[in-house]
Amino acid sequence: MSEAKEKDRILAEIKAFKQPNEIAGLSKFLYDLEGDGFIKVWRDEQNHPITLRLTEQGGRFLDSGGYSAKRRVLHPKIKSAGKGIWAFTLTVISGLIIA
After folding, report:
1. Residue 44: is its pLDDT beyond 60?
2. What would the pLDDT profile of 57-72 be if each residue is shown by its tens digit?
3. 39 exposure class (CB count in 10 Å sphere: 0-12, 13-18, 19+)
4. Nearest to 66 by CA among 54, 50, 78
5. pTM surpassing 0.85?
6. How far is CA 19 from CA 26, 55, 72, 75, 89, in A?
7. What is the residue-wise DSSP string for 16-84?
8. 41 forms bridges with which residues in the sheet?
9. Do residues 76 and 68 lie in contact, with contact meaning Cβ atoms separated by under 8 Å?
10. Who wins on pLDDT, 77 or 95?
11. 49-54 and 39-43: which strand pairing?
12. Tens of pLDDT along 81-91?
């Protein structure tokens, strides 16, 4: 599973009010999700998470497609640039052949 899909799955499980110890892979992304402002974490004296809640920003982010959608936004730009490079290359080659 990609990192984006795994983060989206974790956010969805937090939205479903799962306990932190029931969420697989949470420790790997906990600080990222909290740093991005998508979750609020309450910790015990040993700094272990005891309660997790999605913030309003996190809920909107998840509803808009989450990390997976954020990644998809980059692809059209890359495809557009790739088409431009190919068009330029073919134009140059055609010009050289005609000349």
Report:
1. yes
2. 999 999 999 988 876 5
3. buried
4. 54
5. no
6. 11, 16, 30, 35, 55
7. TT--GGGSTTHHHHHHHHHHTTSEEEEE-TTS-EEEEEE-HHHHHHHHTTHHHHHHHHHHHHHHHHHHH
8. 52
9. no
10. 95
11. antiparallel
12. 667 777 778 88
Residue 1 DSSP label: -
Residue with tokens 């015990």: 44
3-state secondary structure of 92: helix
- Cα–Cα distances (Å) from 53 to 25, 28, 30, 83, 96, in that order, read 16, 17, 12, 43, 62
Residue with tokens 């497609």: 65
9: nearest Cα among 20, 25, 21: 25
